Amino acid sequence: MVNQLRLKTAAGFCTAMLVALFPISKSAVAVPNSGTTSASDSTTSPIILTGDDYGSKITAKPGTPILIKLEENRTSNYRWSIGKTDNRLLDTDGMDFVSDPGPASSGVTGTKIFRFKTKAPGTVHLVLNLKRIRSTYATAVKSFMVDIQIR
Question: Which class is 2-150 in CATH?
Answer without folding.
Answer: mainly beta
